[in-house]
Protein: S-adenosyl-L-methionine-dependent methyltransferase
Amino acid sequence: MRTGTSSTLSGLTEIIAQNVLVLEESMENKGINIPSLNDVYDSQLEFHNEEPEVARSIDMICRAALQLIQTVRSSKAILMQTALSHITASALRCASELHIATILYEAGPEGMHVADIAAKCGVDYRKLSSILRCLGKQWIFREISPEVYANNRLSSLLHKGKSYEDLTSDPDTIYDKPEAALSAIVGHMSDEGAKATSYLYEALTDQSFGFSDEADHSAFSLGLQTEKSVWEYFEEPGREDLLDRYAAAMEGLQEIEPPNLAEGAFDWASLPPESVVVDVGGGIGSVPIHIAHKHPEIEFVVQDRPAVIADGVKRWEQRNQAGYIHFEEHDFFEAQPIKNPSVFLLNNVLPDWSDKYAKKILMRLRAAAGPDTRLVTRDTVIPYSCQVPVSDKTLSIPGVVVQQLPQPLDINGPSAFSYDLSLFMTVLFNGMERTLGHMAELLRSSGWEIEKIEEHDAGGHLPSSIICIPLKGWRDPREMVSKYRMSFFG
Ligand SMILES: C[S@@+](CC[C@H](N)C(=O)[O-])C[C@H]1O[C@@H](n2cnc3c(N)ncnc32)[C@H](O)[C@@H]1O
Structure:
């Protein structure tokens, strides 16, 4: 007779088998071989997660396989390995900063002995050997014969698109090429991100930091020993490399989304010609860059801090693409200078702030909105790690996707990446990614009402666009306070 556990194991195995068939069939229909972890990365050979059926099958396989592993592995070993998981991130940082993927790209399929790699980068050979083996356990680099390494599918993505000679002779331009964007994210997360993360507990339990909403009172402040927020820290003289890497990292975030996802964030074609779309806190314009050339009739204005705008202008001119993007310095905590645009876009901005500050940004936009202005906030909407009760009000929001998992899949699992990202926002800024219920509450209290959501999956793997209209009858509380003061004092 099957016990509970054995039926769980067989159930999970069945889910894997059924969904593997879907993937194999999809690849066969396209005449493409299943990509191997041993070959170098080829975007044509990836499973295409923009196809909903394929994306769902990938999700099912990952969920079932992880649940299977967690079920059968030693519980004590799982906890121990989790406690040591930061070591892999540190190893990844070393490999990326030393440009090992580029060295191996230049070495070709025969690879290179780790002693020669170490000599080229000027580091200890035995230590580098440990680093590469640590990464190899995650299929990042491949030991093709004892101590000889070559690139594989994952490591080859860390090649920054320039020669090793160029990377080392001109460190200011390391992240110039689009191929380097992923390394920029890796660097941001595993360098200043990891240093900050290691102080999460201290920040959480500190008398003044623990309950703070301030961006300059986070684990980042403790880890990096600074009284500045992340943005101010990056802009200090001598940290141009960090600012540059962060800008490239934001572009990289866009790259890991399926192509055309940003384009689907809103029905841009529905806008009349010469409509103005304001990308607030738009960085170097990573979203408009993907849309402007397809909609030259729309005027995109990217607003950000002065140093970021200067970088955005430089990058946009280098690209010399069609379309219209205007870059403008603007602090989103100040009054919004563009009144009544068609769209205010906030892409990956609100998670950087606690509710107190997110509300300030949203209220500035509400005060500048016209009756037909739409607000599009595009972030990860984090799922609950339990079933959403049928009484939950967010279930009636048009476009919401409800998580439906076959038995015996647990709702926990690979959506964990969105939980990691959310906690990372707390570490850096005292911010967070939000659930849909949390977003609805925040938006309403700032004068916005959700019209619909463009949600691609219920697991929070991909960013969702929450499209809002101005909440009717809403009055800016600051305006009411100043009117009250004026009438009180005559
Ligand atoms: C996470 S990034 C997102 C950038 C861009 N929206 C994207 O998705 O690529 C957040 C952006 O907010 C900008 N920012 C931070 N504080 C700001 C402020 N007070 N006013 C305007 N922009 C600000 C940062 O410089 C950064 O470019």
Remarks:
- The chain has a mean pLDDT of 91.
- Residues 4-30 form the longest helix (27 residues).
- DSSP finds 20 helices and ten strands in the chain.
- Residues 85-173 form a domain with the Arc Repressor Mutant, subunit A fold (CATH 1.10.10.10).
